[in-house]
Amino acid sequence: MGDYKELRIEAETFDKMRRDADIVLQRAIGTMKEKESMDGKVTITIDIKLVPEFIPNYDPAIQGETRKILKPKFDHKVTSAINIKNEEKGSVNPEMAMVWDEDKQEYVLTYVNNTSQRSIFDTDLQEVMDETEKNPEVPLLEGDVEDEMEFLEPAGEDDYTYDDIV
Fold first, then answer.
1. What is residue 111's three-state secondary structure?
2. In the 8-state DSSP scheme, what is residue 104?
3. Do the beta carbons of residue 65 and residue 57 sit within 8 Å?
4. Domain boundary assignment for the chain
5. What is the C-alpha radius of gyration for the chain, rounded to an integer number of angstroms?
6. Count of beta carbons in the 10 Å neighbourhood of residue 38
7. Hey, how many other C-beta atoms are within 10 angstroms of the C-beta on 11?
8. Helix-strand-coil split of the chain, %, nearest 5
9. Could you tell me if 45 and 14 are in contact, meaning their C-beta atoms sit under 8 angstroms apart?
10. CA 122 to chain centre
């Protein structure tokens, strides 16, 4: 039967698709070399649609004046993707707690305070600091404060001996 065309990728039906694939392949390899990319991909997709059509029937083996045939339509697309990735990444962990601020009506970050690790942001120290701002006579720390500091006299020559290493 010589009045047919094969439906195979290597058949004449797909000549244009193969030419397009060759062009895209060559461009992709050129771009990879130019951009010094070691990874790329060429993708070939074929969309197939079967279009029904009624034609006049002159075939004596089929009854009726018309008969239904299916005509395939092949659309192809050849694409390439070169893996060139530029990326910036980062992470922030401020070691702070997120809390709702009633005045601002939004979430804010606050220092984690009132724990076993003491901080100037702890509630009791904040109260003392606020009180000190109002009344400078109130000491920040409990206990006696020394007015004079004792300084150590600078040491004289040290008692160390040094040996030259030969």
1. strand
2. T
3. yes
4. 12-82, 96-134
5. 42
6. 8
7. 11
8. 20, 30, 50
9. no
10. 38
Buried b (16+ CB within 10 A) or exposed e, 52-90: eeeeeeeeeeeeeeeeeeeeeeeeeebebebeeeeeeee
Spell out the per-residue pLDDT of the chain, length 166, in tens.
578 888 999 999 999 999 999 999 999 999 999 999 999 999 999 999 999 999 999 888 889 999 999 999 999 999 999 987 767 778 877 778 888 999 999 988 887 766 666 666 666 667 767 777 777 776 666 666 555 556 556 555 655 565 666 5
Closest by CA to 5, choosing from 66, 72, 56, is 72
Are 49 and 12 spatial neighbours (Cβ–Cβ below 8 Å)?
no
- What residues contact 110, with CB distance under 8 A and at least 6 apart? 96, 97, 98, 99, 121
pLDDT value, residue 134: 77
Query: Cα separation of 49 and 71, whole Å?
Result: 8
Distances (CA, A) of 54 to 57, 66, 70, 71, 115: 9, 6, 9, 10, 84
List 91's β-bridge partners, or say none: none
**Per the confidence metrics, is the pTM higher than 0.90?**
no
